[in-house]
């Protein structure tokens, strides 16, 4: 070092040309330059090119600016998977504004809460969801400007807004000089957690994290250049796990799907040569159990990513049989979606099916955008041994962890306590370093002082041929403190299975104290992202007569 200065700093400072804020907006700009005519969005009979997609995003930015939206303002959106959602994921951030995509399966009071808590300035509403939006607005202290989206595939519906989305775009300037952002730490999205863990909390993403999530997804999942991505995953869920940006970065084709139905999925895969799709296990369950006249093996390779909940063995087996290649990912709203994946080693291909399924059921190892995903003792923060037995909490660190919870310093501080983001998920680590979730902290069942993993019991239930879906929760018990209680949906052909038979199946495959003491048959309540609402089931279990 000469003269005490840093050799590699002198005259080598950041400049406008070599240091730009990371933002996913550039991915759309690039796609529009590289392949303007390539199909960017397919929606029913309508196909739009990258030129049009980019132009409409800019028009949206201008339209919103004319409505008074600027940097730091919240723009809420209530829509099924449709072109306007993709446009909003780019057009809103162009202003430095924040996109708040709302889960449309929430009840009106919660949506009203979100609009008020996020201080929404503009509310973009798909016309099919107008009644829900209206009911939410009736219950909300916040009254944003409402823009109706008359999506081409939406059934006719009432216009509730003061503006119409397409007219707003038509009247806007496609050459609008949008301001963008100066600082990559600026918020880009506000996503409320779906509420399986209590009150919805507003998770805030920044441009840097959104960009890095897109990049990380491209390194993690099989999606390749010019991929054709079918939107079975709700776009409102963590901005489609970051894939609204990632697929655009690949100049891929987004195939929209307003409603998840097996027939449509199989049809669109064939019609458009879909190469990739993602979603919670429920989607795969639906495909595997589709009637034979609907179900078909794809004529070309299709890669799927399953995440959001642990895929039961039957799902992994069933998908393999249908010729779909599976990746298993794990993540949370707080971590922009994917944070760990079960990275597959080619030598595992040679293993017998059962062992392959065991390997694949693990949530795996960190994604490239993170510095660490580790399993630690929640108090001492010491890493658990890699013995596949010691349970700890999954903690993570890196550039794709949220900024924090909006207007909730207490929850943010608690989530980041000790220098790690604490997920609340409990896991073990295998000798090869791959982690496997055992439960969420609050889902673990403690019976007579012994921990019972609800996932372990569910996996055994899934192996019973009559069981279509299953969820296990704790039921208060005078003797044991808690005992497992199972909620089971039977396959149509197997309506006759009895409670005693299911319990005996579990006792044959599990330590007896882990077997459910009660089995309740019926449909399982789910969140819009396909996750079973265990807190509702816990209430039902507690209310069961002895
Ligand atoms: P919410 O917490 O509101 O349900 P999230 O999408 O943030 O919505 O849910 C994240 C949670 O989903 C994780 O904390 C974990 O419990 C569960 N999860 C996600 N992916 C997996 C997976 N592959 N295996 C098991 N659980 C998963």
Walk me through the structure:
The model has no long low-confidence stretch (mean pLDDT 93). The chain contains 17 helices and 26 strands. The strands form six sheets. The chain has a nine-stranded mixed β-sheet, with helices on both faces. Helix 1 (25-34) crosses helix 2, helix 2 (50-66) packs across helix 3 (83-94) and helix 11 (281-288) packs across helix 12. Strand 5 (120-126), helix 5 (130-138) and strand 6 form a beta-alpha-beta unit. It is of the alpha/beta class. The longest helix is centred in the N-terminal third of the chain and has 17 residues, at 50-66. Residues 193-197, 307-310, 328, 330-333, 363, 423, 425, 437, 440, 529, 531 line the site of adenosine-5'-diphosphate (ADP).
List keywords for this structure.
nine-stranded mixed beta sheet, alpha/beta, 26 strands, 546 residues, binds adenosine-5'-diphosphate, 17 helices, five-stranded parallel beta sheet, single chain
């Amino acid at each position: 070092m000469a003269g005490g200065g840093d050799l590699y700093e002198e005259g080598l400072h950041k400049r406008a040309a070599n240091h730009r804020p990371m933002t996913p907006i550039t991915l759309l700009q690039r796609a529009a330059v590289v392949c303007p005519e390539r199909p960017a969005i397919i929606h029913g009979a309508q196909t739009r090119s990258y030129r049009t997609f980019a132009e409409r995003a800019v028009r949206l930015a201008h339209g919103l600016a004319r409505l008074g939206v600027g940097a730091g303002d919240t723009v809420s959106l209530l829509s099924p998977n449709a072109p306007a959602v993709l446009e909003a994921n780019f057009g809103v951030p162009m202003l430095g504004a924040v996109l708040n995509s709302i889960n449309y399966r929430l009840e009106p009071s919660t949506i009203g809460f979100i609009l008020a808590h996020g201080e929404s300035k503009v509310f973009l509403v798909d016309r099919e969801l107008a009644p829900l939006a209206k009911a939410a607005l009736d219950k909300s202290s916040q009254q944003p400007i409402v823009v109706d989206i008359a999506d081409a595939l939406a059934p006719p519906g009432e216009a509730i807004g003061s503006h119409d989305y397409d007219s707003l775009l038509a009247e806007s300037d496609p050459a609008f000089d949008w301001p963008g952002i100066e600082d990559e730490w600026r918020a880009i999205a506000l996503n409320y957690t779906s509420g399986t863990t209590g009150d919805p909390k507003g998770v805030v993403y920044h441009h840097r994290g959104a960009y890095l999530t897109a990049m990380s997804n491209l390194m993690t999942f099989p999606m390749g250049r010019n991929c054709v991505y079918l939107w079975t995953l709700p776009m409102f869920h963590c901005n489609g796990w970051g894939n609204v940006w990632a697929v655009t970065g690949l100049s891929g084709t987004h195939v929209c799907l307003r409603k998840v139905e097996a027939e449509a999925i199989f049809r669109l895969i064939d019609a458009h040569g879909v190469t990739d799709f993602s979603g919670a296990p429920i989607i795969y369950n639906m495909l595997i159990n589709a009637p034979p006249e609907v179900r078909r093996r794809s004529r070309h390779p299709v890669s799927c990513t399953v995440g959001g909940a642990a895929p039961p063995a039957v799902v992994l087996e069933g998908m393999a049989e249908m010729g779909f290649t599976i990746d298993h990912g794990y993540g949370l709203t707080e971590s922009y979606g994917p944070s760990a994946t079960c990275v597959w080693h080619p030598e595992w291909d040679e293993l017998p099916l059962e062992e392959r399924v065991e390997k694949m059921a693990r949530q795996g190892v960190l994604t490239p955008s993170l510095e660490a995903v580790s399993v630690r003792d929640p108090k001492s923060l010491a890493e658990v041994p890699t013995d596949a037995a010691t349970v700890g909490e999954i903690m993570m660190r890196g550039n794709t962890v949220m900024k924090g919870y909006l207007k909730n310093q207490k929850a943010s501080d608690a989530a980041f306590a000790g220098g790690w983001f604490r997920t609340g998920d409990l896991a073990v680590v295998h000798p090869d370093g791959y982690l496997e979730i055992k439960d969420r902290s609050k889902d673990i069942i403690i019976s007579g002082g012994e921990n019972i993993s609800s996932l372990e019991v569910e996996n055994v239930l899934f192996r019973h041929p009559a069981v279509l879906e299953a969820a296990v929760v704790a039921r208060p018990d005078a003797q044991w403190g808690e005992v497992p209680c199972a909620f089971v949906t039977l396959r149509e052909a197997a309506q006759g299975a009895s409670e005693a038979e299911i319990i005996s199946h579990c006792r044959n495959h599990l330590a007896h104290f882990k077997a459910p003491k009660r089995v309740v048959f019926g449909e399982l309540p789910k969140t819009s992202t396909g996750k079973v609402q265990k807190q509702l089931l816990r209430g039902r279990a507690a209310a069961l007569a002895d």
